[in-house]
Amino acid sequence: MESPVASRVARQAGIARHNVKNTAIRLTLIALVLLFLFFFLVIPLVAIFTEAFRQGAGFYFSSITEPDALSAIRLTLLVALIAVPVNTIFGILFAWVMTKYAFRGKSVLMTLIDLPFSVSPVIAGLIFILIFGQHSSFGRWLMAHDINIVFNVPGIVLATLFVTFPFVSRELIPLMQNQGTTAEEASLTLGASGWQTFLKVTLPNIKWALFYGIILCNARAIGEFGAVSVVSGHIRGLTNTMPLQIENLYNEYQFVAAFALASVMSLLAVLTMILKVILENRVKQGLR
Asked: CA-to-CA distance for 67 and 62, rounded, in angstroms?
């Protein structure tokens, strides 16, 4: 019969082997993740900046300050400045309606909000061409009144609004559903107006999720290619956003100039990631 001491030693040895095995598995998985990130994120990012500065800093800055490049940068930022605030407002309204009211067709609306995620951006661009293009009755009426939607800035804005609409509302809806309506009802019972209730009760409770959704919306607005490519017309200096201008430069074998402009987008992406991490940390601190 095995003694208690021997049994304890065997049990401790088994625990030690189990811990060593778990440590080895953990380190292997971490190494695989880091290797994946290195090859698919770090190396491409380094390659972009290396190629962008291949002909020197002078050529780099001349490439990103060239008139067509500046026009693409301005248009991209303009579209983001329009699309993000509009989608923020309607995203809050949509989340409010979905979480604070009960009505028929609610599940249908909840499904429709995911439409931009499930429909290809190219198809979305084609839809706007069919609605506002010169081959539609509405499009001909608009052109007769000198209102140009497609192949113009308004078409780019509409396409960007469509593909970025779900980001804010999708961040807010789960949070607002979990919070319920108790706080708002208490505020209204105490005599606060609807606007005061929103500013003093609802907004402070959703602010970090709202900022997170805004960041995601902004990132998609800046980087959108498919829908914008269809409705823009690729008019150099007028309707080319940064992704479209990069494609044009690359197709014209101006590789260094293309990578220079791509580095600007990469810097914006890195800035977005930094803001995202900051907000995530603030949310975690708020939950403690």
From this structure: 10
Q: Which residues contact 253 (CB under 8 A, 6 or more apart)?
A: none
* Pick from 193, 171, 175: nearest CA to 88: 171
- Which of 223, 227, 212 lies closest to 286 in space, CA to CA? 212
Amino acid letter, residue 127: I
Residue positions counted in the chain: 288
As a whole number of angstroms, the distance between CA 169 and CA 282 comes to 20
Q: Tens digits of per-residue pLDDT, 42-66?
A: 898 899 999 999 999 999 999 999 9
CB 166 within 8 A of CB 113: yes
| CA dist., res. 130 & res. 122, Å (int) | 12
Looking at residue 158, its amino acid is L
Q: By CB neighbour count within 10 A (0-12 exposed, 13-18 middle, 19+ buried), where does 259 fall? A: buried
Q: Give CA–CA dist 136/139, Å, rounded.
A: 5
pLDDT digits (tens, 9 = 90+) for 210-257: 888 998 899 899 999 989 999 998 888 889 999 999 999 999 999 999
Q: What share of the chain is helix, strand, coil (3-state, %, to 5)?
A: 80, 0, 20
Q: Would you say 160 and 83 are in contact if contact means Cβ atoms under 8 Å apart?
A: yes
Structure tokens at 217: 């919306």
pLDDT single digits (tens) 119-139: 888 998 998 998 888 888 888
Band of the pLDDT at 85, cuts 50, 70, 90?
A: very high
- Find the angle CA(272)-CA(170)-CA(155) to the nearest 5 degrees: 70
**CA atoms of 266 and 233, how far apart (whole Å):** 24
Tokens linked to 274: 């930094």
Q: Are the CB atoms for 125 and 231 separated by under 8 Å?
A: yes
Burial of 132 (0-12, 13-18, 19+ CB in 10 A): buried
